[in-house]
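**Protein fold record**
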Amino acid sequence: MTDAVHLVLGDTAAGVLRDAMNIGMAPAATIVRFRDIYCLGPLGALGTADGPASRARYWAELLPDAPPAVGDFDEEEARYAQATDAARQGTVFVWTGAHSSSQLWLQRLCAVLPPQAADIRVVEAVDPGADPGGRRTVSQFEPGEFGELLARARMLDAAEILRLTREWQRNAACTSGVRRWAGGRISHHGDDFYDGLLLAQCDDDWQPAEQAIGSAQWECDEFLGDVFFAWRLRCLMRSGRLLCSGPAGSLAEAAVRLPGAGGADGTPH
């Protein structure tokens, strides 16, 4: 299928798909890799001139030591243009997972597809019969599993493209910091929605901050990433809901615990 183009979300997913092509589990074809994580931050400006800058401002808050450039998000917009051109010329495979970023990304793709797009196929990276707790992202499948996933690809017809376009418009217009995928719908929440989950990983004893972040990621019902949980941990420390000990500004060497236990000065025992 020489005219095929595969659209994937994330560097790791693109790498695993390339590995699958190299071992013959998927025909060799062009891969277009997208990066932005739509389960977090403002979406309303996307598709406008301020779209890339709005996303860069948000991610700079989460990554103050290494803020992304606006140009990174300009490149993301160029990938949508590339996907649109590919849809005019041949078959496009969209690799999706059962989580909010992937579903929002699929919705936005539908919103930019040309009306004459005729051969859009969705590859759903899910285990047949798996319960929601067993879901995986595309990147969590082995290259040898991609042939089976590809064999289950389904056509995306005009009616579904229109429905998903409208879903994107509705979701992008909602002011929210965190989005979840549950029951086949996107739900909207504040930035602090998972703060309780982070706090639940902590107790009266000191533990490495990275351990609390990793535990929250593991227990979370979405694939939000360590950057998000590190940001929320810093917010909890600033508000006094968590105590921290370690070098200023470095979570890699920090320890955290709940307040109210011995050592109120924030010093580990």
The first strand starts at residue 5 and ends at 9. The two ends are 63 Å apart (CA to CA). The longest helix spans residues 70-89. Residues 16 and 142 are 7 Å apart (CA to CA).
